[in-house]
């Protein structure tokens, strides 16, 4: 994994990542070695999951998607079935079943999760983002 990572531009170190990680494109992806990530994690290029000065690292639940150039920093918890929009920066805890966007990231929509489809990789992010109006 380390050789492939150097060649393709991602760096995971000894991070605890569950089953089913999906890397959608090569590019700069950095995940702190102490981060804890659940199952079915989807990641796009430009994502950074790191620590802050106090040493805290994110804990990320199952079925979470980080889109391009997004990040999560500090000792925060991101719940299950969360979608992080492109260019969003998560700096505080995020509950289950929602879509977050912005800097710092805010909840822009709650997901209605049914038993048939809990995957966030195929979620309709563009509809949620387009319906969001900035204040």
UniProtKB/TrEMBL annotation:
A Pfam family per the record: Hexapep
SUPFAM superfamilies per record: Trimeric LpxA-like enzymes (SSF51161)
Domain of life, per lineage: Bacteria
Name this protein carries in UniProt: Serine acetyltransferase
Organism: Phocaeicola intestinalis
């Amino acid at each position: 994994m380390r050789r492939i990572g150097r060649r393709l531009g991602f760096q995971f170190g000894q991070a605890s990542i569950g089953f089913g990680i999906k890397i959608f494109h090569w590019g700069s992806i950095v995940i702190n070695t102490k981060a804890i990530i659940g199952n079915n994690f989807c990641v796009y290029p430009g994502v950074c999951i790191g620590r802050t000065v106090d040493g805290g690292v994110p804990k990320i639940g199952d079925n979470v998607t980080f889109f391009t150039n997004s990040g999560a920093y500090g000792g925060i918890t991101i719940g299950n079935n969360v979608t992080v929009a492109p260019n969003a920066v998560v700096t505080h805890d995020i509950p289950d079943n929602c879509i977050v966007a912005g800097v710092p990231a805010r909840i822009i929509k709650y997901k209605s999760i049914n038993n048939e489809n809990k995957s966030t990789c195929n979620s309709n992010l563009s509809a949620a983002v387009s319906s969001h109006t900035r204040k």
